[in-house]
Amino acid sequence: MAAVSSVLSKVMSSGETKFPLHIAIFLLAAVVSALCCFVSGKLLNKEKAPRKIKPFGKERIVFWGRHTFYFFPVEYWGAIIPLVTVFVCVVMRFV
């Protein structure tokens, strides 16, 4: 742990770095959260639940996973999070 803190202090104290530390932390957090979303989504949506829906008065049964976030299954966010992170990192470089 002491080695990590000494490396971080050297990187933060040196003026110019080739790869800014805040972007590395941002990417690391995105990778960890994407893995967590993917694994938890796969575990939670293992069995698809039958649901009755009535679009326009017609009743039909669909098989959906039970756990979604903004109408996307949770495991899909494992791919969406890194894409959004890369986009934000690119935009941050130009701002």
Shape, per Cα inertia axes: elongated
Provide mean pLDDT, rounded: 79
The number of distinct β-strands equals: 4
Proportion of helical residues: 55-70%
Q: What strand order characterises the main sheet?
A: 1-2
Please mark out the parts with pLDDT under 50 across 5 or more consecutive residues, or reply none. Answer: none
* Oligomeric organization of the protein chains: single chain
What is the strand and helix layout of this fold?
Elements: H1 2-13, H2 21-44, E1 49-53, E2 60-64, E3 68-69, E4 72-73, H3 77-94
Short note summarizing the structure:
This protein has 95 residues and is of the alpha+beta class.
Description:
The protein has 95 residues and is of the alpha+beta class. It has one domain (21-94). It is built from three helices and four strands, in the order ααββββα. A two-stranded antiparallel ribbon has the order 1-2. Helix 2 (21-44) runs antiparallel to helix 3 (77-94). The longest helix is centred in the middle third of the chain and has 24 residues, at 21-44. The radius of gyration is 21 Å and the shape is elongated. The model has no long low-confidence stretch (mean pLDDT 79).
